[in-house]
Design goal:
Shape: globular
Largest sheet: 5 strands, mixed
Order of helices and strands: HHHHHHEEEHEHEHHHH
Number of strands: 5
């Protein structure tokens, strides 16, 4: 489906451009043809198609808070799960992505909540939203949260020009606001965030390192991120971007080194 969007064959998406979005005017209208939910599904569904170990490697590069393990199984991925808020007077919550992994030997369960913001600066991450989502998780998933399990919360995008400072504030606000997180392992170190630029650079690096089979899927991810406005467009000067990413690995290494 996303190939059709990139080639301008999806009128339903193009007609939904956020023309009044001030950041859209700055970066170009083609970037806003990809709305937040579409971008979220396009990126995370493709990541889930990777071998679970490689998906986990990407997540660990993005979020050092996650424990690095060789044995990894992706048990479940769910987009926009509908959870009741523990406060009956509050509305329900819907995290963007809910992932459940088993890692290590012996196996332990790791659950991830991911909250996505479409732009880096225009729509900021909301501490109140994060607190609601984590509270909703424990209220709805508490009985299934086994001893030794861990919950992580990951914010993608919306961290502004000072992401490290924003992540520190995120950790502080969330830990003060979440009240019912005593059913499993959850602490300040389990909260992290990253940028779309960082995700792009990590994927570019793995294109250099991984085999051809997985590289094809990563090429697809880079093409989507480029279309959404997060990749350096000079790497797509050739009409065959796949060819560039498969053979001109020195350029990708340069992109990665500059980003980190």
């Amino acid at each position: 489906m996303f190939k059709a969007v990139i080639q301008g064959k999806s009128g339903s998406v193009r007609s939904d451009i956020e023309i009044d979005n001030p950041e859209a005017k700055r970066v170009g209208l083609e970037m806003t043809a990809v709305r937040e939910d579409i971008l979220t599904a396009a990126i995370f569904s493709r990541l889930s198609y990777l071998p679970a170990k490689k998906f986990w490697q990407i997540l660990c590069k993005l979020y050092p808070e996650l424990p690095s393990r060789e044995l990894v199984t992706l048990k479940n991925i769910e987009f926009w799960p509908y959870w009741e808020h523990p406060d009956e007077e509050r509305r329900s919550v819907e995290p963007d992505v809910f992932l459940q992994f088993e890692i290590g030997d012996p196996k332990v369960s790791v659950d991830l909540l991911v909250e996505v913001k479409r732009f880096e600066n225009w729509t900021p991450q909301s501490f109140e939203q994060h607190i609601d989502q984590i509270s909703g998780y424990f209220s709805n998933m508490g009985e299934a949260f086994e001893a030794g399990s861990s919950l992580y919360f990951l914010a993608l995008g919306g961290l502004g020009n000072q992401p490290e400072a924003q992540i520190r504030r995120l950790k502080s606000h969330v830990m003060k606001g979440v009240k019912n997180c005593d059913k499993g392992e959850f602490s300040k170190s389990h909260i992290g965030g990253t940028s779309w630029k960082r995700l792009t650079s990590v994927i570019a690096r793995f294109i250099v390192e991984w085999d051809d089979k997985n590289r094809l899927l990563l090429n697809d991810l880079i093409e989507i991120l480029n279309y959404a406005g997060f990749a350096n467009r000079q790497y797509f000067a050739d009409p065959d971007p796949l060819k560039i990413f498969q053979y001109n690995t020195s350029l990708l290494s340069t992109l990665y080194e500059k980003a980190v």
